[in-house]
Sequence to fold (606 residues):
Amino acid sequence: MTTTTTTTTTPARRRATPGTGGGARRVAALARAELRLLVRNRTALFNALALPPMTVGLFAALGVVGDGAPAAAGAVLLNLLTFMALAFVVYYNLTVAFVARREELVLKRYLVGECSRAEILVGTAVPAVVVALAQTLLGIVAVSVFLTPPAFVNPLLMVVAVLGGAAMLTALAAATSGLSRTVESAQLTTLPLLVVAIPFAGLFGAPGASSGVLDTIGTFTPLRPITDLMLLGAGGIDGDGQVVTFAETFGAAALPAAVLAAWTVVGVLAARRWMRWEPRR
Amino acid sequence: MTSEPIVHVRGARRRYGTFEAVRGVDLDVHRGELVALLGTNGAGKTSFVELVEGLAPASGGTVRVLGHDPYRERRRVVGSLGIMLQSAGFSGDLTVAETARTWAGTLSRPRPVADVLGAVGLEHRADVRVASLSGGEKRRLDLALATLGDPELLFLDEPTTGLDPESRRATWALVQGMLDAGTTVLLTTHYLEEAEQLADRIAIMQAGRVVRTGSVADVVAAEPARVEAVVRNDGGRAVTPALADLPALAGLVGAPDVDRTGRLRLRTTRLQDDLLTLLQWADARRLRLDDLDARAASLEQAFLALDDTAGTPGAQRTTDTEAAA
Fold:
């Protein structure tokens, strides 16, 4: 039965082993496609580009933000913008994107190819993270031009806030997508994190006034470290509302950074547990 | 080196809970050949192929692809594989060319996108959004992506389902071209004609096992040929010959059968001898054999005969409509 003559020697055929160096190239290819899809999806594009600045504009107009020291107002508004970008562009939009790619069987296709699972997740997330970064940069320009500019005491902490927050929310979005059967149901499954965590995120004013048990609990909620790190980095404002020096910001950043890292680990574990790569049959 | 098969499977098993979909499959695929895996729905074809593709671990037995375990050592082999799944999707908002370029960006040695789209006849659709493609065009785009990485081993799972006859032939020509260039192919199909056209060897799966392997000719040779005719007397009236009246046939399988319209049907392993006997018999009795139809067994017949003998209790007995078509 297996007597087929297969002695035809194929000219030493290029055996390809996907090198680890190809990872960046693969991620870039997926990211480009995802960016195109973002640009072509009006709802997602609106969420990404218009929603965060509009939210900030609304709250600024209502005058509910940053009552008190005018120097803090810039930092608080900047944080609000970054926060909205992370929450809506990274967390919400990405959850929807993961569900959509799964349901249209695109994740399944990527999996049979050379990409690792991590590369697929990162490639899909890159455009959202880039948008969040861009919003932050635009926000920095805006508050510097229109308001009393914050001191930008420790820009490194702002970078940690944006990139760390993006990493945590990407992992949480992957996990949430696994709990969402359809793109529409992602509107519901993303609510718990947003609704529960936003009130604790300390968005609407410099800390200090609200200190208490709730505030202590709030310190450990997932979205709070983004605010804490942003306010520290942009305004040098610590958890008690005190303005600290560049050197002191590092000590003050330890707890929020640890909370952020811990939630990122939780997100990764949750993604491993819940994320699905194919529709349920 | 070439003596080592590209795909080497011994005793492969795959279990879903208490159900065992793959129950000890042996299969070798050698370099440059096309092996077609046939079987009814639920025979375990896709479950088995996923083991070879490295998408799932075997619960027993050995699976080696290009000398490696395709699941545990997937990174070592995946760059040499091209996989066309039965169902994998596209983002509808990307164009054909964007989809192909994205995929090319993930491959270690992509061929030029334009060449591959041309080969599947989609070059004129390159700037069309995938959502606007017909089912057949999407299937061809699937094939384009599977072949874009210039694979050593190509998996095709029902590659022509949903294609019109012309596209199907074009696909066959494309696959034939890749075979000529040295690609090895493991094809899963419902269409027996497709297997007859392309396969060097076929393997028929039934209830999780490979029950026949060999060339199409080998598999078919085991099946008896068929002779059919309507017997008429010299007045032109159909007569129903008494079975005892028929000549002794050397290769007769089972009893001849005469249906209500007087159509005589018999099966024989010695077509030429028995046909001659039958013609001489008719001639001597001045009978005419109208609509005389004598033919060697087809793959379809072999396939259906196999399904009839499916003895395993609970085995799926339904024949695919495509297989019967």
User: Anything to note?
Assistant: Chain B touches chain A through 47 residues (CB under 8 Å). Residues 118 and 124 of chain B are 8 Å apart (CA to CA). Chain B has two domains: 7-220, 224-296. Confidence is low (pLDDT under 50) at residues 310-325 of chain B.
